[in-house]
From TrEMBL:
Residues 37-56 bind DNA. It holds the Pfam family TetR_C_3. This is HTH tetR-type domain-containing protein. The lineage of its organism: Bacteria, Pseudomonadati, Pseudomonadota, Gammaproteobacteria, Oceanospirillales. It comes from Vreelandella olivaria. PROSITE patterns: HTH_TETR_2 (PS50977). Residues 14-74 form the HTH tetR-type domain. Keywords: DNA-binding. InterPro entries: Homeodomain-like_sf (IPR009057), HTH-type_TetR-like_transc_reg (IPR050109), HTH_TetR (IPR001647), Tet_transcr_reg_TetR-rel_C_sf (IPR036271), Tscrpt_reg_YcdC_C (IPR013573).
Amino acid sequence: MTVVSVPSENPSREKIETSILMAAEQVFSQHGYRGASLQVIADRAGLPKANILYYMGSKQALYVRLLNRMMRRWNEVLEDITPDSDPATVLSDFIRTKMVLGQRYPEGSKLFAAEILAGAPFLTEYLRGELRDWVASRAAIIRQCPPRGKWMLSTRAGLFF
């Protein structure tokens, strides 16, 4: 007996979440957190509002997920640094990556900037938890370098050399 595969008419969870995230990023970046509504996000994603709540939990959870996603994108460039990394290359790659990501994800960048300008009310937990731990791990790597090594902090310039 031959089994014929029939394509599913139900999109995968990943596709639905991607659709929601893309729509939400646009709506939040255009209207801010307060001005955005789940109904507008649902309409833009082509889904019922109930699906937004089912997949994301709440408006706040969706918003925080977008902010965290943008931070992870930016921080990935520093994941592989070691005490032997060339500081000029690391700094150059970090700046270049932030510029490219700003162009590739303008809505996410705008969303993050607006959150920071508002005092980061929705990022407090992330800033005090995950990001703080991540920054501490990067600082520990830099502290492993010899005192007069490549990762010397210039107090005048405020940059790593």
